[in-house]
Amino acid sequence: GQQLNQSPQSMFIQEGEDVSMNCTSSSIFNTWLWYKQDPGEGPVLLIALYKAGELTSNGRLTAQFGITRKDSFLNISASIPSDVGIYFCAGPNTGANSKLTFGKGITLSVRP
Amino acid sequence: GAGVSQTPSNKVTEKGKYVELRCDPISGHTALYWYRQSLGQGPEFLIYFQGTGAADDSGLPNDRFFAVRPEGSVSTLKIQRTERGDSAVYLCASAVGRGGYEQYFGPGTRLTVT
Asked: Is A43–B59 a contact, with Cβ atoms under 8 angstroms apart?
């Protein structure tokens, strides 16, 4: 089946720094979603991308839908302590049912 | 407005017992999904409802798992003869309609089978 790859598993940055994370797939996705999950909570939708090449922002977050449709990038600028969490990329499987495939996530730590 | 709610938040049960997990989606969302999340992994799809019917149950691991949504709103995930390997966080998500890629998740139910 379709798989989404996220690496590294963990990232450590200093407060105020920018961070970029990417998500790749061996197959084409027509939609990319980025979620953030805090401990004990469900994933929260950050950004949805629907068109190859699309660049979308949500506050300090910016995500891009790769031209090849096999990758997506999420950038966080001027990180703050509450950015700590697990960031997942996700995309709907081929077919009409819109069930999502998720990557394994990247755990972000922000040092004050 | 109210988001997706799930009850209970935690459930501890003995191996072999039956459990029910409840999901209350966002009002007006016709699409409802169940996912399972193990430690260190992303959520994995279990079943999808469009209205009252299960449109796709291909993610259910075996016939011990069953889900219903009788009135097209609240859904219940049922697990019979629980096994220790069933321990995980069970997440519910809802979306506006068919092809609703923007899925909104509840806080999950953490199931522990002892």
From this structure: no
Convert the pLDDT of each residue in A63-92 to its tens digit. 999 999 999 999 999 999 999 999 999 998
> E-assigned strands of B1-114?
5-7, 10-13, 19-24, 31-37, 44-50, 53-56, 65-68, 75-79, 88-95, 104-105, 109-113
E-assigned strand segments in chain A: 4-6, 10-14, 19-25, 32-37, 44-49, 55-58, 61-65, 71-76, 85-92, 100-102, 106-111
User: In this model, does residue B30 exceed pLDDT 70?
Assistant: yes
Please give the residue of chain B at the shortest CA–CA distance from A100.
B45
Using alpha carbons only, what angle is made at residue A72 by residues B103 and A7, rounded to the nearest 5 degrees? 100
| Each residue's pLDDT tens digit, A22-39 | 999 989 998 999 999 999
Nearest residue, CB atoms, B101 vs list A33, A44, A88: A33
